[in-house]
Amino acid sequence: MTTPSAAIPSLQKSYISVSATYNRRKITNALLLGLTGFLTLITLLPLIWIIGYVIYKGGRYINLEFFTQLPRPMGMPGGGVLHAIEGTLVLTTLGSIFAIPPGVLAGLYVAYHPNTWLGILVRFGTDVLSGVPSIVVGLFGYALIVKQQGHYSALAGGIALAILMVPIIIRTTEEMIKLVPRSLREGSLALGAPEWKTALSVTLPAASNGIITGILLGVARASGETAPLLFTALGNENYEIGRIIKGSIAAHQGPLQILGKILEQPVDSLPLTLWKYAQQPFPERINQAWAVALVLMILVLLTNIVARSWVQYRTRKLLGK
Amino acid sequence: MDIKTTEKEIFIRKPSSESKQPIFSRNGSSNVKNQTKIQVKDLSLYYGTFKALGEINIDIPAHKITAIIGPSGCGKSTLLRSINRMTDLVPGARAEGEIYLDDWNLLSPGADVVEARRRIGMVFQRPNPFPKSIYENVAYGPRLYGIRRGHELDEIVQRSLRQAALWGEVKDKLYQSGLAISGGQQQRLCIARALAVEPEVILMDEPASALDPIATLKIEELMQTLKESYTIVIVTHNMQEAARVSEYTAFLMIESPETRMGTIVEFGKTDQIFTRPKHQQTEDYITGRFG
Amino acid sequence: MLKTIEGKSAEPSLRNRLRFFLHYGDKPWNGLLILMAVLVILLISAIGLLLWRDSGASRAAFGWHFLIPTLDASWNPVFDRYQSWPFIYGTLLTSLASLVIAVPVSISAAVFLAELSPEWLRLPLSWMIELLAAIPSVVYGLWGIFVFLPVVVTPFGQFLGETLVVVPVLGEFFKGPIPVSGSSRLAAGLILAIMIIPTIAAVSRDVFMAIPGSQREASLALGATRWETIWKVLIPYGLSGILGAIILGLGRALGETMAVTMVIGNSIEGSLSLLRPGYTMSSVIANQFAEAVSTLHVEALVEIGLILFVMTLILNIIARLLVWRVARQTPGQVRV
Known about the structure:
The structure holds 3 protein chains of 3 kinds. By secondary structure, chain A is mostly helical. Chain A has 2 domains: 18-58; 60-318, MetI-like fold (Orthogonal Bundle), CATH 1.10.3720. Chain A has helices spanning 4-7, 18-59, 64-68, 82-112, 117-129, 134-149, 154-179, 182-190, 195-223, 227-230, 241-250, 255-263, 270-278, 283-318. In chain A, helix 2 crosses helix 14, helix 4 runs antiparallel to helix 9 and helix 7 packs across helix 9 (195-223). Chain A is globular and about 105 Å long. By secondary structure, chain B is of the alpha/beta class. In chain B, the strands form 2 sheets. Chain B has a 6-stranded mixed sheet, with helices on both faces. In chain B, a hairpin with a 7-residue loop joins strand 9 (248-254) and strand 10. In chain B, helix 5 crosses helix 7 (183-195) and helix 7 packs parallel to helix 8 (213-226). Chain C is mainly α. In chain C, 70% of the residues lie in helices and 1% in strands. A two-stranded antiparallel sheet of chain C has the order 1-2. In chain C, strand 1 (75-76) and strand 2 form a beta hairpin. The longest helix of chain C is centred in the C-terminal third of the chain and has 35 residues, at 295-329. The interface between A and C is large, with 85 and 87 residues.
């Protein structure tokens, strides 16, 4: 090694002066960190404001009638949103029926084959699909179904919602199945059970809690969507399943036809109703809009909170934390 | 409060350091030899309720290499990191006692951690250069202190890289990524980076454990050069390395399996520790009876 | 008699065929999985294809002129003349405006959550920010119309109109006056900002958390302050991921429909200004599709949908690539 002082240039010279920058650095640090915290708080402001206001405004107009009656003609007080509640139920059920099988199965595929071309492509495609604007999905639903059938229907709406739910279900299924210990699946296979049986009796049940929460999250999203329903389900203020069924039975129609009647009509949903009521000049409708907003928010937020905390809990348990 | 008063109170620094006079002592000036650079007094470190280190007392001499050895898990790294208060980063960590850098207690309530860390540099077990160019890695520290002008920065970068024995190998590729060089070179880059802020002490946490033997040798040679200008403390699990490299050694061990608290069993000149240890435990460890 | 090793009959009777299938139905099972997986990819293509088909007449009639920025834009159902630039402009302007506000706020939140927050606060705070994303778009719109607009947007818009309109180039975008109701592109931009903050913040937070701790240690051990570490080491390190997060947020803003259409005024007035009402691609579709009479009108709207689809598709791909790049160069899950 070279002799110390000779080879090392200007060891004697000190470049670093602490005092020149001391205050500036300290103040900058405190200021900007404080700003960061402040801005973080600001993100919460709208949340609290919206939730608070919706509870305040909507809470006033919720009553039993709200949940059990169809709407009265415009301008008249009273009435409810039964049609929207039932519509939301029908639509999300339909959406789930269409979204769960492909979602879970595709999620299974990606979980088992994460490194194949198809696996990577599907994972990527799922992410992309979840970014497609919901109104575009509505246009697709219109082009695919409404145009062919010549009328708006709950079926078309259900399919549109299903398209929105699938990416969420695939994602959650994949993550939950990855958490199932390999030993479980390998044990079953080692006993001679075929892949499909292993999947259905061992892997899926083990991941079922997580998959169900994924479905719940999908349902939460779907039930809050409006845009895809604008051109598929359209809206229907006279929709009441009880009456439909009674009417069909009276006309001696079979179960398949009853089902058809339920599915093949245009149908309203809570968000759709909210959208329509918000634009109307009648104060009663505006009040009801707030009430619908409250119901919708409770539905969506609660489902979200329950689903997410369940996922957290299960993930912790499975990882042995 | 003007700046100088604040500084006096916080740093208890001698005025000469502020007037850009040499802060290193040249090889040969004897007034710094045989002085204690860092004095650890009754240091106890807690992680929450767990007492990781108990009443540590060592005096780290200036311009020497001090090694901290001991079986794995005894708290060597913890001790090293508490010197430059990197243990503060662990949530729930708490230190009691005193650590004096010259005459400044680093654990006093108002002590400026940022300045403490500048004066006490650290090199980690795995090289961790920033994903920036080699030049920018070394220039990172000085830039924080407001050094912007090209030629001043160039001088510092060159000086630091020379001190780290890396200049010759990288002087033509200063603008390549710091990650594009070998592990041993990356570690020397980290050393250069630490040197660029003009520290007085360099802490090394098993600096060569992730490196191949040739790179390790280079680092050990480097240490001998560096100790002339800096005080070096090294943690190592490799006893031969400690014996080769250091002049003073501290032997750390867990007090008992129940408490898992680290304490200093023995501290003294390396020669003495390795040939005539005063404690049975030390002798057991060195002769390989356990650990 | 044919017998297998286990002594079971191997003759090809129906029962045996069934038994064989039940025990060895793996091929069809795997086939099913693959089919479903492919379905997802097919879906994306199907959407694109159908949109392409159903906009045929419009594309044939207007060609590229449909898209090109022009001062002479018209959207005229009466004369069946359509040009989409006003809507593209509206979408771009409101989305970019939303980014101006959302990016600093989201990144600050991400930095806070990842670097500064005490352990006990991290999860609840993350959740609360994510709850913002769960609120349905129509609820944002309702609150927007009756609360946010009168209380915040109108006064803010008036303020901006008075102060910024004198600035040379920028002033063009603040030529007022803002309508009394507050319905304007500004309103849409502000509400969009609130809606995309959770997206950008969550992804950015994950990016920060994926950065190895050794980088922070290296910086702090050199005597850098926490802010300096964040600003000069962590943000540059995670830059591509953060960029991906921003683009994801932008993609969301582009496609957002209900809240926008409720507060933007839905007017085809020719102004460039943020303070005036306008239209976005998604809001014009939502507004006009159900009542469109002529086929050309419908197809023009579908074409707008197609443009929207392609834009968000490209943005999403870029964003995911950026985020995946950070996720692969550092260990750890980047969840979206």
